[in-house]
């Protein structure tokens, strides 16, 4: 049984990972709100990762950091505070979590870290200046720490396209917007959180022990193909 720490397992992609991992592993969830489910293998800590001290956890094999933001505005409307806030939740929260848990993680079995980027870090998309900047920071962290921790702890990121969670609810708020989003993607679709969780589950498994320092686009072709 592995010990998995999920920062942000109360909803969205983190919750999909939590639900898939609970049966066979011990999951420690850290978020402001508790997940809806209770389970013998789940321990929840009500914590704001930016404001509060992170709880002590004695054994960890996997650390998954999910908090993020979608703050889409033209550059003229984005404030410096917007850039700071996006950097804080996407990068500083991840750094704080890694620094806190790395000493314990290093003693784990096949230890690994998963972070989240976005397709907008690679594909130039209007109004994404702040989130693209912050997620480029996440990708830099993955590269640098991948090298620094090589042979001890693996670290990878998943860069999803739009995924149906509360974070993207405003962008997918009616059927017409959903159909447009499907049409924009060369492979005609967008992500469900369970699809992203499937890749996260592979990346933290023994089967992925050769993989570190990578950013995996889950893009329904939007970054990869021009048709
Ligand atoms: N959804 C998309 O379309 C999309 C696209 C590209 C990339 N991504 C990235 O994928 C990741 C996951 O996205 P998602 O859609 O699953 O997001 P989500 O539905 O908003 O879930 C985020 C999770 O993080 C927790 N969280 C947020 N702020 C926190 C804080 N200050 N302290 C502690 N926990 C906090 C939330 O729990 P509480 O609210 O209970 O604290 C929640 O469990 C993010 O990094 C996002 O940028 C998502």
From TrEMBL:
<dbReference type="Pfam" id="PF13561">
    <property type="entry name" value="adh_short_C2"/>
</dbReference>
<dbReference type="InterPro" id="IPR051122">
    <property type="entry name" value="SDR_DHRS6-like"/>
</dbReference>
<dbReference type="InterPro" id="IPR002347">
    <property type="entry name" value="SDR_fam"/>
</dbReference>
<comment type="similarity">
    <text>Belongs to the short-chain dehydrogenases/reductases (SDR) family.</text>
</comment>
<protein>
    <submittedName>
        <fullName>NAD(P)-dependent dehydrogenase, short-chain alcohol dehydrogenase family</fullName>
    </submittedName>
</protein>
<dbReference type="GO" id="GO:0016491">
    <property type="term" value="F:oxidoreductase activity"/>
</dbReference>
<keyword id="KW-0560">Oxidoreductase</keyword>
<dbReference type="InterPro" id="IPR036291">
    <property type="entry name" value="NAD(P)-bd_dom_sf"/>
</dbReference>
């Amino acid at each position: 049984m592995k010990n998995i720490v999920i920062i942000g397992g109360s909803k969205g992609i983190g919750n999909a990972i939590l639900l898939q991992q609970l049966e066979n592993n011990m999951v420690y969830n850290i978020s402001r709100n508790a997940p809806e489910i209770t389970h013998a293998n789940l321990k929840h800590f009500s914590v704001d990762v930016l404001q509060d001290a992170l709880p002590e956890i004695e054994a960890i094999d996997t650390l998954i950091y999910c908090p993020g933001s979608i703050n889409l505005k033209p550059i003229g409307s984005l404030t410096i505070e917007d850039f700071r806030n996006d950097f804080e939740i996407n990068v500083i929260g991840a750094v704080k979590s890694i620094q806190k848990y790395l000493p314990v993680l290093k003693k784990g079995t096949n230890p690994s870290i998963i972070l989240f980027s976005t397709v907008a870090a690679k594909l130039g998309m209007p109004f994404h200046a702040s989130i693209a900047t912050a997620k480029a920071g996440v990708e830099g962290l993955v590269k640098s720490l991948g090298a620094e921790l090589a042979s001890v702890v693996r670290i990878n990121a998943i860069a999803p396209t739009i995924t149906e969670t509360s974070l993207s609810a405003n962008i997918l708020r009616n059927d017409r917007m959903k159909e447009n989003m499907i049409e924009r993607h060369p492979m005609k679709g967008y992500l469900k959180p369970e699809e992203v969780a499937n890749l996260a589950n592979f990346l933290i498994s023994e089967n992925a022990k050769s993989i570190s320092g990578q950013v995996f686009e889950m893009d329904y072709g939007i970054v990869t193909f021009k048709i």
